[in-house]
Amino acid sequence: MLQRLVKISLIRRDFALADKYLGILGRLPGYRRWAEKYTGYVRHSERIGQDGELAAKTIPAFQPDNLLCLTGIDSLWVGHLSEPGVNRVAWEYLGCSYLLAKEMEKFKIFLSHAGRFLPGQSLPVHFQEAALVLATEDLSVLDWVSIRPEIVQRYKQFQKDILKIKNGADGLPWLYRQYGDTFWFYYYCKNLNG
User: Fold this and answer.
1) How far apart are CA 51 and CA 94, in angstroms?
2) What are the b/e assignments for 143-168, b being 16+ CB within 10 Å?
3) pLDDT 10s per residue in the chain (194 long)?
4) Which of 26, 43, 24 is nearest to 35 (CA)?
């Protein structure tokens, strides 16, 4: 079994692991000569290519498996956006993924292309709410994003209320009852690490 692990380690070019197994085999009388032969492969890796058995075996180049989510979320949804007849659902999922991850810079760029995907239509409510969060640092966002007046009013009230309850211990449950369905509550009050 250890002999097989040595060969696999050599094929993978994991010389530290091969050396570890060879050290164990080198202490066993029946495997000492075999270990000495393959220890030379660790010290001179070009010998692997000259070995009849090992040279024929190679490790294929790594191909990421998209099912394991090694593909970035951006490229996953953007692929759908390039399809004929823009897929609005894919576009919204991409925006929601930015909001859930609180990646506001990416969301800002995403929002700047909203007119291409929603000509003449209003943005989803959470996107409008997120645009108001962006506007706290860059008012120019409001130049190219239309936000319903009642959402603006509710955000202004949220800002007042969050300042009021900041020092109160029972304030967060109250704030949740009032604004738990908003992006603002998620953005300012939810801790992603715990």
Assistant:
1) 51
2) eebebeeebeebbeebeeebeeeeee
3) 778 888 888 888 888 888 888 888 889 888 888 888 888 888 887 877 777 777 777 665 555 555 555 556 665 556 555 555 556 777 788 888 889 989 999 888 888 877 665 666 788 899 899 999 999 888 888 888 888 999 999 999 999 988 888 766 677 888 888 888 999 888 888 765 54
4) 26
User: Which residue's structure tokens are 């897929």?
Assistant: 87
Name the nearest CA neighbour of 20 among 165, 122, 8. 8
Closest C-alpha to 86, from 105, 114, 128, 108: 114
Determine the Cα–Cα distance for residues 194 and 182; give it in Å rounded to an integer: 20
Measured CA angle at 180 (ends 178, 185), to 5 deg: 105
From residue 187, alpha-carbon distances to 93, 149, 184 in Å are: 18, 21, 5
What 8-state DSSP symbol labels residue 120? Answer: T
Instruction: Using the structure block, give the residue that is written with the tokens 């009849």.
Output: 52
**Rounded CA gap, 93 and 90, in Å?**
5
Query: Alpha-carbon distance 69 to 135, whole Å?
Result: 32
Least Cα distance to 126 among 69, 173, 187 occurs for 187
